[in-house]
Amino acid sequence: MMLKLDSRDYALALPLLSQVKINTLFAEAVLKGQTTGTVYVDNVQNPRTFYVAHDYGMSLAYGDSGNEAFNRSLYDYITNKTGDRQSPEWLQGDPAGGWSPLIESMITEHNALLNAVEPGPETADTRRMYTHTRVNFTFDPEVYHSAKEQWFRQDAVIVQMTAGLFDGQSGAVIPRYFWRDAEHFLSTGIGYTLLWEGEKASSAFSAYRTADQLEIGIESAAGHRGKHFAFSVCSALIDYCLEQGLEPVWGCRRENEGSYRLAQKLGFKPSLYIPYYRLAE
């Protein structure tokens, strides 16, 4: 069965996480208490199978994928059998751990049952599960510095994020979804906001931060897109990373064309494509 792990025991989930060779910073942030989430295991004393769910709506399965009792509960969870999940959740499985065929078989079974009950293309879309693609990147500083000379907006005002800017952010990717509160963010994280004609045009911030890596979160106001503002504010954060000896990290859905193109413009090169599962509501 999937058993909730007490937050005081989250360290039990860290050794195996370190062996997962994809970007797992969001899961690490949950396990180390940067942000909130839920951790499920097969055994609370000696866990072998792990499911880390970030409250923002991202999750990771890793460890032993052949645990039949856990997997039966996992099927109920990802198909939202109880109806507790009210919004989509995006799941990754450790590519080296045999999770992809397991999850894909669950998706196929769930969607087939859904079609049998409610056939036709109009079947409730929110109850259907889909496979997308998640992209991991590697950073090339030479490409970045060359691009910065061409695209950085010298006429824009970029300021470091304050408590007021932290609390005042709106949109889908904003700091308060990734940090406990403004005080925690300001003591451990970092962010910048680009101001244009008195408005918050674009912000880049540390979604997750470790001793040697910083994952970038970016949000631009609808009326200020297409003006290189996102590139410029991300540049401020990348420069901070380079000054502090941190590796800047970027990840996104391949279907998010804007983020995918911006990443490459900033010097991030696609390095890994993995299945990314949109779980049913």
TrEMBL record:
It comes from Paenibacillus phytohabitans. This is GNAT family N-acetyltransferase. InterPro entries: Acyl_CoA_acyltransferase, GNAT_acetyltra_YdfB-like. SUPFAM superfamilies: Acyl-CoA N-acyltransferases (Nat). It comes from the Bacteria.
